[in-house]
Amino acid sequence: MQISVIGCGYVGLVTGTCLAELGHHVVCTDNDPERIASLKASVVPIYEPYLDAMLGANCQAKRLSFTSDAGEAVRAGEVIFICVGTPPLETGDADLSAIDNVARLIATESVTPKLVVEKSTVPAQTGQQLKRALGVYSGKAGAEFRVASNPEFLREGTAVEDFLHPDRIVLRVEDDASEKQLREIYRPVLEGRFRCPVHMGACPSMQPPKLVVTTINSAELIKHASNSFLAVKISYANMIADLCEKVSADINEVTRAMGLDPRIGPRFLEAGLGFGGFCLPKDVQAFIRLAERAGVDFSMLKEAERVNKRRIDVFLEKIRRALWVVKDKQVGVLGLAFKANTDDIRFAPSLEVIRRLLAEGAQVRAYDQEAMDKTSVIFPQIQCCREPYEVARDVDALLILTEWEEFRQLDWERIHGLMARPLVVDGRNLLEPKAMMERGFEYYGFGQGEEAVAAEFVPTLVPRFSAEGASA
Ligand code: UDX
Fold it and tell me: May I ask the CATH class of domain 2-214?
């Protein structure tokens, strides 16, 4: 099938490349000419496992191409995937101006019928507006447009795998012809017989995904509802972690047992610095705004957001308690990306932690295998190191802010010998507390029953009889 992808950001690049991998002919466009120039040379501007190789191979096979001529891209496709950004406005609402611009572009450049598929995350009812806009912008003599919604559920770091082996594919279509086209596009994935490069061809045991065909408003809501639920789940785990500290319980033991209940499930119960990245925080905000405008009091989501913001305070408090005075201390940071296996630092907890440490007068040096260049633009005053051991040298504390596997595998005995004071504050509960303490570290994670904290816990007993009550 001939497919156009508009927007070569994270979602667009993964979508375009994977659709080409499935055997379609894909033309991608973006309004950033530098990005297109680099993609034409097969230089991928983001770090995402498998993407580079797959993009290069599909360009070579002439199934994937990039153009800065958006009109050419629109005319090339029978199906057009809209993958432009919907960043948050000051109000928390999603900014839909890029979708509106793309609607105008498609409406004015199309000469043949098109199936226009919303892939970007948008609030419910955007599809209806998009359909209307395509009609208005194309005028009387315009081409025929059908609008579908096919929300993405790609996680950064595993996006290629998520695309080729999804749990579910959600579609909203207007008519049978659109459903047939979209089923055809995803046929290799839906039939579960696609041998993908992620598993080196050895993935036939995976379950084929469920196809869910819904109304358009439901399709749009599913994405926001899913991401907001994940955010609530993380904040819930974080509150349990705080409670664990107060009652000397262990969050990992608690969530492991909770997760064995299939109604709860083990994932997204990892306590720590909370959720960041470009999706969860903005989707929660947009969902709160959508609910407000619809007259629904979704304060539970506001609470999840508040809990998440407080994670940084809780973390900083741990650092202050351990260091006493932060000013003039040497602090090493391991991990800058908002999560492992990505170079993305958008809404990463690391940024706020570093900003506050610098404000308190600490000297910060950092290492992240992928996200260093982007961070040093924001904080030119921090020292970026080429490897983790360089970060550890003579520091008063080492902070773990991203759960890169590389950090688990470090030679911690060597690190112990390098540090001025062997203090580790682990924002991701990446390391084993007992093993760290046995190596001689002073180690703090989240929800692991710190003794100092536990000692302060005095249960509030409700007296059965009070002296006053007895005399009354
Ligand atoms: C998310 C959704 O998972 C994906 O379906 C959607 O399409 C895009 O948004 P992503 O932003 O890549 O994906 O990150 P995700 O893996 O969901 O993690 C989000 C944040 O939550 C990260 O900062 C991560 O560190 C944090 N997190 C995740 C936790 O703090 N605890 C957990 O248990 C899981």
Answer: alpha beta
